[in-house]
Design brief:
Elements (H helix, E strand, L loop, with lengths): L2 E4 L8 H14 L4 E5 L5 H6 L8 E3 L7 H11 L2 E5 L6 H9 L2 E6 L3 H21 L5 E8 L7 H12 L9 E2 L2 H9 L14 H27 L1
Parallel strand pairs: 1-4, 1-5, 2-3, 2-4, 5-6, 6-7
Protein name: ParA family protein
Organism: Rhizobium redzepovicii
InterPro entries: DNA_Partitioning_ATPase (IPR050678), P-loop_NTPase (IPR027417), VirC1 (IPR009744)
């Protein structure tokens, strides 16, 4: 079953938010989902300790030696496996990337985030050279402003990345209170109280569009392998 990891050597780049948004959206739609929480801060493990009704299994006993076996076992158990990686360029991260069908590189709309995301792209390119394989990946913007309030620097960064042939998701996870509320309340977007979270409906629509685009990337990767 598909394995998706989120990698970026910069802490606070939005990896956990991206992974949790995708995992909970798919689980809400009826898919079986396992999240492997390899972030030392264990944000998704903490989320799982809450009262969410979604049957998402979280595995957090992973290290460099066990990450591949944990992913392989999870892939036989669930329809989707997500891996939230630590904020460093490590051998654990490399092993997860090698085993993943898609690597997402979350970044915010700043020059510093773009620089750190370039390091993650470099890690993937090095892994490709070491293994002689190609790995599907895409940058994934988060905490950007929705149209028509998109900042010029956000547009320029995205344009520059694409001009350098770096794949970038069209759908951004916009700056929304609801994404923080997921971690605060330990619930999914679909379980939050709309009367207490501003813009919840817009955040849900945003999450569904992002998930649809990621699913299409996974389908295209499968079609490419079949060809």
């Amino acid at each position: 079953m598909p394995v998706v990891c989120a990698a970026n050597p910069k802490g606070g780049a939005g990896k956990s938010t991206t992974i949790l948004t995708l995992a909970t959206t798919l689980a809400d739609q009826g898919a079986s989902v396992i999240v492997i929480d390899a972030d030392p801060n264990k944000p998704i493990t903490d989320w799982r300790s809450g009262e969410s009704r979604l049957p998402i299994k979280v595995i957090d006993d992973v290290n460099e030696a066990t990450i591949r076996d944990r992913i392989n076992a999870a892939a036989t158990e669930a329809q989707f496996v997500f891996v939230d990686l630590e904020g460093t360029a490590s051998r654990l991260a490399s092993r997860a990337i090698i085993r993943s069908d898609l690597t997402l590189i979350p970044l915010g709309g700043t020059a510093l985030d773009a620089k750190q995301a370039a390091r993650a792209v470099g890690l993937i390119r090095e892994t490709e050279e070491d293994t002689g394989r190609r790995f599907k990946f895409s940058l994934a913007f988060n905490r950007t402003n929705p149209p028509p309030f998109t900042r010029r620097i956000e547009r320029e960064i995205a344009q520059q990345l694409r001009s350098n042939s770096v794949p970038v998701l069209e759908t951004h996870l916009y700056r929304r209170e609801a994404y923080n509320a997921m971690f605060m309340e330990r619930l999914s977007l679909y379980e939050l109280n709309p009367s207490s979270v501003n813009g919840l409906g817009a955040a849900i629509d945003n999450a569904i569009h992002l998930t649809a685009e990621v699913l299409e990337l996974l389908r295209s990767a499968t079609r490419g392998e079949a060809a």
